[in-house]
Design goal:
Blueprint: E1 2-4, E2 13-16, E3 39-46, E4 52-58, E5 64-65, E6 69-74, E7 85-89, E8 92-93, E9 98-103, E10 116-118, E11 128-133, E12 136-141, E13 163-166, E14 187-190, E15 200-202, E16 217-222, E17 233-237, E18 247-253, E19 261-266, E20 275-277, E21 290-296, E22 321-328
Amino acid sequence: MRAYSNPWRKLRLAVSYMVVASVIVASQGGIATATSGSVIFSEYVEGSGNNQALELYNATAASVDLSSYTIEIYADGANLFSPTYSVDLLGSLASGDTVMVARAGADAALTPNGGFSAGSLIFDGNDAIVLRDGTVIVDVIGQVGFDPVTEWGTGDTSTQDNTLRRIAAVCDGQTDPINTFDPSVEWTGFPLDTFDDLDAHTSDCLAPPPPALSDPLINEFVFNHAGSDTNEFVEVSGDASADYSAFTVLALEGDTSKGVIDGVFPVGSTDASGYWTTGFMSNGLENGTQTLLLVEDFTGAAGDDLDTDDDGVLDVTPWSRVVDDVAVDDGGAGDM
């Protein structure tokens, strides 16, 4: 699944630049860890000059409030809970959406769709990066408290002079900040200053949205038998095993009380073959000239007169739209 960023989302970024002298206390009993499904780092850019950026991806099924989230930079083996720089986030991040945070002065390509610049987002290939939700560590790039001198990893998947993208199967962040870090396990590497595909992340974490239902159709109807009017019905066709409860079949009088609703038949779910029927009725549908309408979001009732001046044009339309219709005419003078 490919999740595209919404350019209209409203995210604000509060940036703080500090060399921390005090210790940030997270938990006296140990390091707090995240639960399954989290906001993760999905792209890492360690480029030339000021071209440093991080992409965040919401791998959860709900929108996430980012006001409690902080990006922490641990430079040159800095100790845990003593970050060298930090970036505080505000706003919200929708399920399956991404947001870019780039160093101030970075190439404009690192902040597509009005991304965010942070003066304190300063890191090199040997600096560990931590994403926190309050005191909870939700993801880590690198190994806090250890200085690899230049980088973690080798070649295109090293953290120096490369762009790294999280593989699609990763749905949870790394929550142990002092664990040995090998970027090749969860990241794919690209050359220096690779800026394409930013602010969008390919992920297997979220189920794709269900496909839109096809509009139902009036497939078959039977009424006005030569003998007694038994086994009358209306059949609707659509997608298999689909909920069409938003739709209703209406039977409109076309003889004397033109436009009056004679029958209201709420549609339900189709069967495995894609059909729904009213079931057999006796004298459930009026004989003679009439119109069947298949409408969506019906708010009227049986007996309503939709053609108040009987001119053949509906004056009242208590629905959002008509998706199908069929009419029969018994030949009577003035029928509609």
